[in-house]
Design goal:
This protein is an alpha+beta fold. The chain is 33% helix and 21% strand. The chain contains six helices and eight strands; from the N terminus they run αααββααβββββαβ. It has a six-stranded antiparallel sheet. A two-stranded antiparallel ribbon has the order 1-2. The protein is globular, with a radius of gyration of 17 Å.
């Protein structure tokens, strides 16, 4: 079972985060949007600085992603329950609160309304693993999830329970509200 756990994490890492190399060589070039291309930098950190990404978390992004995926594996398919806080049923803000407490020892408020008031605002184009993403899903309804990478985030969905979804899907893209970052 333990080997299956490790294989699952490795496979998820490849699916969501792709392969990368630590050595990048070449002269400065830009992509079709005028951004520097990563292959032209000594490190991914130099690339992030060149395209003005906000400072990264003190914890390495891969460590954040891995920790988030481990938490997801523990909670995957837990049903959604409004007001729920356990593996028998959990709502979106309780899932986020649980994740931050158990994985990063960070205490955040219980409700989406209070969570959105914490952390530092970050733009959608500068999202990093661990950022909270908030959605306006109705006149007075809000939803929260945790960004992973490449447009994917984990959350407790009313239809699927704890799952991973794409921020680029028509529904989530059109309901995106804001993102917040916490220092790990």
């Amino acid at each position: 079972m333990k080997n299956l756990h490790i294989i699952f994490i490795v496979l998820l890492s490849f699916i969501f985060f792709g392969c990368s190399s630590k050595t990048f060589v070449g002269e400065s070039q830009t992509d079709q949007y005028g951004n520097p291309t990563i292959k032209n930098y000594e490190s991914a950190q130099d690339y992030n600085h060149a395209i003005n990404f906000p400072p990264s978390h003190p914890v390495e992004p891969l460590e954040v992603k891995t920790s988030l995926l481990l938490h997801y594996q523990d909670w995957k398919d837990t049903k959604y329950e409004y007001g729920g806080t356990t593996r028998d049923g959990v709502d979106c803000s309780a899932f986020v609160q649980s994740t931050f407490k158990s994985r990063f020892n960070i205490s955040i408020p219980r409700t989406t309304l209070l969570q959105v008031k914490k952390g530092q605002k970050v733009s959608r184009k500068n999202l990093q693993a661990g950022d909270l993403i908030f959605f306006k899903t109705g006149k007075d309804q809000r939803h929260v999830g945790i960004y992973l990478s490449k447009g994917n985030f984990m959350h407790s969905s009313t239809k699927k329970g704890v799952t991973i979804s794409s921020l680029n899907s028509p529904y989530y893209s059109s309901h995106f509200w804001m993102a917040k970052r916490f220092n790990f």
